Amino acid sequence: MAAVSAVARARCWSFLAAALLAACGGSDGSGGPDGGGAGPDAARGSADAGSQASCKAPADYGTMASLPAAEAVQRNQPGSMGAAQYFRLDGTLQEMPGLDQVRLELWDGYGVFTGAVTTGTFTIEGEELSLDTCGVCAQVLADAQTGVAEQTFLAQSGTVQIDSVTDNLNGSISDATLAEVDPNTGMLIDGGCTTHIDQVAFSVPIRVIGGGGGGGGGGGGG
Q1: Which phi-psi region, left, alpha or beta, contains residue 135 (left: φ > 0; alpha: ψ -120 to 50)?
Q2: Which end of the chain is more exposed for a tag (fewer CB within 10 A), N or C?
Q3: Dihedral-angle region of residue 7 (phi above 0 means left; psi in -120 to 50 means alpha; beta otherwise)
Q4: Phi, psi (degrees; rounded to nearest 5) at 175
């Protein structure tokens, strides 16, 4: 399977909001598309990094039992000819004072997934800390009401539980600390902002685009 560069993946993931589930990338080689409610009204900006004025995300989004306006898709990975897929979940963390979205992507053959995406409980560590290598990639896109996030954050700790990738994408993100990344390079920004998610649960029907393969198996875990 041909690897997708960090820059390509970061640029693909960085746009959101109005075109929430628009195609990201080019063609998978088969002629089809490929992968290429309000939360807490906390003061925006992290107390740990970045200045209060410059940080677009709150210090903590708290706990959400469900994810408003959530959608999930399964697509072919760019250049895979349909042999590898990824899943993407997008949903609203808060709408005011700016539209903040959570994005979770699960990639066949990356990070904790040596093959197809599986169910399990996965710790955000090691390869999951970089857009270049993560298979479980949890992000926050802050202040995204214009269609492009003002700031992008990638999880640097926490756990992601995946209970189903067949028909519905079910699971949760727990105790996740996310750090600001450059959306063009995928690299962490030195001294950038941080934010935190206590827990976000989701159960969302999966829309298959471009003839994605069957859902992953069971028994993952990190």
Answers
A1: alpha
A2: N
A3: alpha
A4: 50, 50
Beta strand residue intervals within 108-193, DSSP E: 120-123, 136-142, 151-155, 159-166, 168-181
How far is C-alpha 121 from the chain's CA centre? 16
Q: What pTM does this model have?
A: 0.77
Identify residue 57 by its one-letter amino acid code: A
**Can you say whether the dihedral through the CA atoms of 198, 137, 148, 50 is positive or negative?**
positive
CB atoms within 10 A of CB 22: 11
Question: What residue has token string 């040596």?
Answer: 114
As a whole number, mean pLDDT of residues 155-171 equals 98
Residue with tokens 């709150």: 58
Q: Tokens 């989701």 identify what position?
A: 202
The Cα-based distances of 173 to 61, 107, 136, 197, 210 in angstroms read: 12, 16, 11, 8, 27
**What was the pLDDT predicted at 184?**
85
* Gap between the terminal Cα atoms of the chain: 23
**Partners of 71 in beta bridges:** 90
For 31, residues 6+ apart whose C-beta sits below 8 A from its C-beta are none
